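Case study: MITD1 C-terminal phospholipase D-like domain-containing protein.
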Amino acid sequence: MDLMETIAMYKVADEDVAVHVVTVEDEFNGEKQAENLQKIAEICQGFGLQFTWVLDTTGTKHDREIVTDHAWKIVLSRGLDVFQRFDLNDAFNFANRLQQHRQCKEYNVTFVKILESSL
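Here is what the predicted structure looks like once written out:
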């Protein structure tokens, strides 16, 4: 949801942005995961964001990456799970509202320019 909020904040107002997520089912909370992904899709509709998702059932999905239509692949070592836990119930904690105030886990990001023929 943080990613979708960031995209909504910085995209051109009359531009539609499509985000398609391929993920694996959470082995402990699969139903809750599907429910949350569906909620994100519904919320995004009114903001010019087309959020779709699918579960990869091949058992081979491992890499975490973002591929853009601007010929970039962003490889994320941890995926988007980069923040340390914080108290979500503290209404006076800036970490609940501003990412720059959240503590992060160590992670790597690699940017790869995709050749035109690979798109």
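For the exam, be able to explain this: Strands lie at 17-23, 49-55, 65-67, 72-76, 109-113.
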